[in-house]
Amino acid sequence: MAEEVKLFGTWASVFSRRIEVALKLKGVQFEYIEENLSNKSPALLKYNPVHKKIPVLVHNGKPVAESLVILEYIDETWKHNPILPTDPYEKAMARFWAKYIDDKLWPAAREVAVSKGEEQKGVIEEIQKQLKTLESELKEKKFFGGQSLGFVDIAANIIVWLVVAQEALGMEILTEEKFPVLHGWYQRLVDDAVFKECMPPREQHLSFVKVRFGSSTPSK
Amino acid sequence: MAEEVKLFGTWASVFSRRIEVALKLKGVQFEYIEENLSNKSPALLKYNPVHKKIPVLVHNGKPVAESLVILEYIDETWKHNPILPTDPYEKAMARFWAKYIDDKLWPAAREVAVSKGEEQKGVIEEIQKQLKTLESELKEKKFFGGQSLGFVDIAANIIVWLVVAQEALGMEILTEEKFPVLHGWYQRLVDDAVFKECMPPREQHLSFVKVRFGSSTPSK
Q1: What is the edge-to-edge ordering of all strands in the sheet holding B56-59?
Q2: Which of B50, B76, B77 sits opposite A133 (nearest CB)?
Q3: I need a surface site. Which of A63, A115, A138, A166 has the fewest CB within 10 A?
């Protein structure tokens, strides 16, 4: 059966990039629709009436929203090249860490980009504590998912955003010296052929973050 | 093999009650350990070092935290009497709604209990919008899970907490008149034999909410 797979996203969003990575890891063909978040399309509003947010995956006309929910849907629908472990306990651990990243790391990462001075220092300390926690989970593994990248690695693309933000905004958060284990993981992640394909163009991303969050902009 | 299943919880928490419901629906024997949140046990801190929160399920010595993660773990470990659908799309929808309840309804429900006057009116309106959204998802179904209670019904036990809070604090949020569909669901839920067994004793719960959130208490 010919399948119709559409992804509504926006290029700078870590959340829509997650879905691209998963679809490409599975080799699923899809149509990507770039949304303008200040003028959302009627299709996006129709497919995600509850949150009116990207990403939305539409599979044969049926929409799924929320990036981690979409990742699980993709993994259960196209079963080859699994991104989640099959063992229930390992699967629970993967879900736990992905939720940790979304509930703890992402709000702090957003906060650090809009804060200044002492406040920013406090947020950086908070983020570094979280990164240490993630590092102690990673230990000597190549990826959170083991030998190849999986659910938590994909969710942890927020760390790639954080590294872009640290460069764009002149902060020092994740350095090789402070986080040797996580830094090694980061290098393997951005060097991964599929992941690399799904990263925003670096210069464009840097200047986007500078304009959006840099000190020259009056808006928070 | 003799299994060891322990649940660390606290009686008034909707999140630990969720786990009790799931374990009882499955007929899994477990030991319940009541935690004192103002003096957490070394065991809880050992089993959930990241969040230091209840509920934690410990299965043969291995801990799982975060209530929705625990529910999925239970459903995958003891496969009879499933609480999640098997179809990937229906499963994604269940996850979407459970996440909606935790991300949107729970923060608003907490907020309504600590707010006053005009601010409280605003939060009540917000909650009622969310309840309408849930009602439009429920439609004519007996439970969110279909003919019997499932993942979303268990997650939606927050609504039962909300009904207790509305009575304890003299608010009008979920009435039969305003929410006929959801009110019918609420009645079926609290009449369900397993669910009923896992509800906090009503009078104790009412006075707990009054003391914790009532206007006579100075703390927020």
Answers
A1: B31-34, B5-9, B56-59, B62-65
A2: B50
A3: A115
